[in-house]
Write a structure and sequence with these properties.
about 425 residues, alpha+beta, 4-stranded antiparallel β-sheet, about 60% helix, elongated
Length: about 425
């Protein structure tokens, strides 16, 4: 990785990645509450948690196949005829304790445990990825919702101004200063604005329902329907070295663990090329002793692979190919993460510059309109000029709303791309149950 992102601006903050609760930077209590609730109730996150619990349970008992085993068996046989059969498998009653132990040779037990632990680590990163995706989606939908509500309010104001302008057009038509086509044009513009208002209402309802789904419920939070100020980015975007930030990204960490797990599978496959030793024994009533009702038997067994048509070697070759494939997948995951973060940085910096310019233009336009309003009040200007000025300001506000949303969404995309949306950047090693 290079020392800085390709899309980073020279003035980017170099704050560390420890400031992980980035959504707090919006200073929006509702957004923080939504993120907190979704982390506890989102169904995708809940599924990932259960997958993690299953993986940890399997990791706890991964070595059970290489530990002594003890079992009990009971057999009752019945037969007809007076002849006594000394075959121990045909004896009327057997009650035995059986013990067995496959001795781990050539480090196979270590590789098995390592593979199981890495499966749990991968499941943990899947959980982190689910939380990351849900957090980003909650934030993006919330930012979009507040922008839609801002657009709805501006559209309603625009309709009011257009209706005033239409009434003035009617008056001018009556006195012969305008034509009927001018009046009809004004009505068409009003109808278009009203149609847009209906579309915005539908988009707002859809966005509210999407947020409810992310929360794991069908009933949206009532406060979401109440218009609130549009969330704005109040701090500089976090910078830092790509190699440091991308290590926090769950899919990159998952790909790293997948490489290690593929290496463990190579070790397991290679250990199958060598002999296996197993110790076993039986003790109890009806044991396989020719002249005794009670006895014991046991001993070692050695399995030596001699001829299997190359199956074990093919398994090793396949495992090594999977290991190389996992390494390439890891490199691809890093490159994709870097590209996504760089693109988000470029979009953020462009949106921030646009926001600054639009705010400056809006300030100047407001000053011009205030001057025009004074002239209208003194009868030196036509009212329609004041209305046009107000409409121009609404257009600038609409552009500013879009730019603020783009800036916020780019910020969200950056933190999602770098994985710094998570409070915990490292996964604990699952405990082993011996």
């Amino acid at each position: 990785m290079p020392s800085a992102y390709a899309g980073a601006s020279p003035g980017s903050s170099q704050a560390g990645a420890k400031d992980l609760a980035w959504w707090e930077g919006f200073h929006d209590q509702m957004l923080s509450s939504l993120v907190s609730r979704a982390a506890n109730s989102n169904l995708t996150v809940a599924q990932a948690q259960q997958n993690l619990a299953a993986a940890r349970a399997m990791a706890h008992s991964a070595l059970s196949g290489y530990r002594p085993e003890l079992g009990a068996t009971g057999i009752a046989n019945a037969a007809t005829g007076p002849r006594v059969n000394n075959d121990f498998t045909r004896r009327p009653l057997q009650l035995n304790l059986e013990a067995g132990w496959e001795v781990a040779l050539f480090g196979q037990d270590r590789q098995v445990q390592k593979s199981a632990d890495l499966t749990a680590q991968i499941a943990y990163e899947d959980l982190a990825a689910a939380k990351l995706a849900v957090t980003a989606e909650i934030a993006a939908n919330y930012v979009h919702l507040r922008a839609l509500q801002r657009r709805r309010a501006d559209t309603a104001d625009m309709i009011g101004l257009l209706e005033r302008n239409s009434r003035l057009a009617n008056v001018r038509e009556q006195v012969g200063l305008a034509t009927a086509s001018d009046t009809e044009l004004q009505k068409s513009v009003i109808d278009t604005a009203r149609s847009r208002l209906v579309e915005l209402e539908s988009e707002i309802a859809t966005s509210v329902q999407q947020i409810a789904t992310l929360e794991g419920t069908s009933t949206p939070t009532a406060d979401l329907s109440k218009p609130q100020p549009q969330p704005t980015v109040r701090a500089s975007l976090l910078g830092g070295r790509p190699a440091d930030l991308l290590r926090l990204r769950p899919d990159v960490r998952r790909a790293e663990f997948a490489v290690a797990q593929a290496g463990a599978q190579v070790g397991i496959a290679k250990s199958d090329l060598y002999p296996k030793l197993r110790l076993s024994g039986t003790i109890g009533i009806g044991a396989p002793i020719g002249s005794s009702l009670f006895g014991a038997s046991g001993g070692p067994s050695l399995q030596i692979p001699l001829f299997d048509l190359g199956r074990r070697k093919d398994v090793v070759a396949a495992s090594e190919a999977k290991f190389r494939e996992a390494g390439l997948a890891y490199r691809q995951a890093v490159l994709v993460a870097y590209e996504e973060a760089s693109r988000a940085l470029r979009e953020f910096n462009a949106a921030r510059q646009k926001t600054t310019l639009l705010r400056s233009r809006l300030k100047r336009a407001t000053m011009v309109r205030n001057s025009a309003d004074k002239l209208v009040q003194e009868g030196l200007e036509d009212k329609s000029k004041s209305i046009r000025g107000a409409l121009d300001i609404l257009e600038l506000r609409a552009s500013l709303t879009d730019s603020l949303e783009d800036e916020a969404r780019a910020l969200i995309a950056f933190y999602k791309a770098t994985g710094t949306a998570q409070q915990a950047s490292s996964s604990p090693v699952p405990e082993r149950r011996m």
